[in-house]
């Protein structure tokens, strides 16, 4: 089961009223040029609303509705020309009768060709003043004329230079026209074309502007501005206002930030968009209903007759979402009836949406795409677990609760995962107190007697063990209990106290492996934490007493933490701790040299070349480090490291002499 993230005409978000309102507004004012903005964050459903608008306009014979996606043209051609040409081309294709108006069509495409050539005119005119156009510029002009040489480089020879210059001057003559006059002529011919086509209203839908690079977004909006005063033409622009404002600031960097109480970027957008519609975020009831519809639709298929009935009834139930309701068990039974084998999956979908809907809605700020991405990740991980034969004890609801923490409260998830990975039973024992609430005993976290099965036995044993632990001050638990997000998460069912979380963490290790060397530190975790501190705060007392195996585990724990960073321009935390550890444990010198070679030399600062002498004391280690340092001094990819390594080698040479 997979939830496809494409624009759709199947309205699960009850956005049909927005589309219908936009269509009604345009139909009521067909002769007036109009620009409507459909605004919303990335993934809010803008593209789907455009699909609904296009679908509704398909029933009106006197209206032509076209769609343009600037993102698809990005990098291939000028976005402004692409939009203008795309509108005219699609108009001719949708109205075959225009083929009879041959001259009118030919004239307007001639205007477009003029605009294409005019893009190059400025640079060519500069070279023409000297009479010596460059081969590249000659190619731009001559490549558009079939009767001239195919190889423009040959035209720049001494023999043909004069003829080429004269040809360039002749071709530049058309661009002596004033651009405003040419644009005004295009508008008049476009008006005439609409009348000949018998079109009462032309509606252009522009999508994915907020995915475009700033220049492409601005070029597209500038093309829209060309039609602002063209009668019977309307635009519906779907875009995130924040991204468009960013594009304006990047495209016009010299503009001041603001003028009076408003900034220029906002003013630019408001001059183009006459009527803004903003898509509202989903609330708790709407999120639960959306999750249920997504999962039920994925199980039954969008074409299932019962599912279509369910959508209609869900819309009725969501007319007044502030009163509660939404998609519940009674509505599912009424709309779907007896589904046989599929009944269990439908009930599971409702249960899951009830459990995760509120927190998922708040965590994603009611963004449909983020909700869908979360559900896809959940379903994929569940599918992977079943393929790995994790057994019946692996529960979707437990995985979902952990993933909510992973996605929206990452610090909580990291601590829960770390505790569970290091526990012999895979249990996070702090969760017992957290889920029971302030002042309750850990045993109160789960007051129901487990049923049968290994998983239930493990859960019971883990809960009893958690209850038997003596009460003590726990700073981490104290922080959890005053964090509203954490306490709201803890209230979600099912309870995780006493649950072996290792299968779920194993599935979630796409970002971090919780079962590596760090997870086996146990009582040595405090030593690793201490060695990650600044050098002045590190206590070396006791490091010499570590057994070789313990010292190796501590080294690996520090190394993993250092390598998890992606910025090595400044010395990372833990490097000084490694030096102090290896100084106290000389057998680790080869490990330290392996670590030094593992560091990305092209991305490290000059610190990498110095500071290792206290730890690298054996002759073989000194010789190996000298070879590494010599390699840094000879490379050219990192000048700062090269200079530092060279200076270090010079000091050693001077000391020997």
From TrEMBL:
Organism lineage string: Bacteria, Pseudomonadati, Pseudomonadota, Alphaproteobacteria, Sphingomonadales
Domain KAP NTPase: 16-382
Family matches, as Pfam families: KAP_NTPase
Protein name: KAP NTPase domain-containing protein
InterPro entries recorded: KAP_P-loop, NTPase_KAP_P-loop, P-loop_NTPase, QatA
Region (Disordered): 438-466
């Amino acid at each position: 089961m997979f939830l496809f993230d494409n624009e759709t005409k199947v309205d699960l978000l009850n956005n049909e009223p927005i589309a219908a309102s936009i269509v009604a507004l345009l139909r009521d004012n067909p002769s007036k040029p109009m620009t409507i903005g459909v605004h919303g964050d990335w993934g809010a459903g803008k593209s789907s609303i455009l699909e609904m608008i296009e679908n509704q306009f398909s029933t009106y014979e006197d209206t032509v509705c076209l769609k343009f996606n600037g993102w698809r043209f990005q990098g291939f051609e000028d976005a402004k020309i692409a939009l203008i040409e795309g509108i005219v081309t699609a108009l001719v294709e949708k109205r075959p009768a225009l083929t009879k108006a041959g001259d009118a069509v030919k004239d307007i495409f001639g205007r477009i060709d003029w605009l294409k050539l005019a893009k190059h005119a400025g640079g060519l005119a500069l070279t023409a003043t000297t009479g010596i156009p460059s081969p590249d510029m000659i190619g731009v002009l001559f490549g558009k004329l079939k009767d001239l040489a195919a190889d423009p480089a040959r035209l720049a020879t001494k023999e043909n230079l004069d003829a080429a210059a004269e040809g360039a001057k002749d071709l530049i003559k058309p661009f002596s026209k004033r651009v405003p006059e040419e644009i005004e002529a295009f508008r008049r011919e476009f008006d005439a074309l609409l009348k000949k086509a018998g079109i009462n209203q032309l509606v252009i839908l522009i999508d994915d502007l907020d995915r475009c690079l700033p220049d492409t977004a601005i070029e597209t909006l500038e093309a829209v501005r060309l039609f602002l005063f063209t009668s019977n033409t309307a635009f519906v622009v779907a875009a995130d206002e924040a991204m468009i404002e960013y594009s304006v600031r990047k495209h016009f960097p010299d503009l001041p930030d603001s003028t009076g109480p408003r900034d220029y970027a906002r003013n630019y957008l408001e001059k183009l968009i006459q009527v803004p519609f903003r898509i509202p975020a989903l609330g708790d009831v709407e999120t639960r209903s959306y999750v249920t519809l997504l999962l039920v639709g994925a199980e039954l298929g969008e074409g299932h007759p019962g599912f279509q009935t369910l959508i209609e009834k869900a819309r009725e139930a969501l007319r007044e979402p502030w009163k509660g309701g939404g998609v519940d068990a009674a509505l599912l039974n009424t709309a779907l009836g007896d589904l046989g084998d599929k009944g269990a999956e439908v009930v599971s979908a409702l249960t899951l949406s009830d459990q995760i809907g509120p927190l998922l809605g708040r965590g994603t700020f009611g963004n449909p795409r983020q909700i869908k991405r979360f559900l896809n990740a959940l379903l994929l991980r569940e599918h992977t677990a079943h393929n790995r034969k994790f057994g019946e004890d692996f529960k979707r609801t437990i995985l979902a609760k952990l993933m909510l923490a992973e996605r929206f409260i990452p610090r909580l998830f990291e601590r829960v995962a770390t505790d569970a990975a290091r526990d012999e039973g895979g249990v996070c024992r702090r969760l017992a107190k957290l889920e029971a609430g302030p002042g309750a005993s850990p045993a109160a976290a789960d007051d129901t007697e487990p049923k049968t099965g290994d998983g239930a036995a493990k859960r019971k044993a883990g809960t009893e063990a958690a209850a038997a632990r003596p009460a003590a001050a726990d700073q981490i638990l104290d922080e959890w209990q005053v964090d509203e997000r954490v306490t709201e998460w803890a209230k979600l069912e099912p309870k995780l106290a006493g649950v072996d979380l290792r299968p779920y963490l194993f599935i979630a290790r796409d970002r971090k492996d919780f079962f590596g060397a760090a997870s086996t530190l146990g009582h040595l975790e405090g030593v690793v934490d201490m060695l990650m501190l600044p050098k002045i705060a590190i206590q070396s007392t006791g490091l010499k007493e570590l057994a070789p195996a313990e010292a190796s585990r501590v080294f690996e724990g520090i190394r993993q933490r250092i390598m998890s960073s992606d910025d090595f321009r400044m010395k990372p935390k833990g490097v000084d701790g490694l030096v102090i550890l290896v100084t106290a444990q000389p057998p680790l010198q080869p490990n330290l040299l392996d670590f030094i070679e593992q560091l990305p030399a092209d991305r490290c600062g000059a610190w990498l070349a110095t500071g290792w002498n206290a730890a690298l004391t054996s002759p073989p280690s000194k010789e190996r480090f000298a070879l590494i340092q010599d390699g840094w001094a000879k490379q050219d990819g990192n000048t700062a490291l090269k200079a530092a390594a060279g200076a270090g080698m010079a000091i050693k040479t001077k000391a020997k002499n």
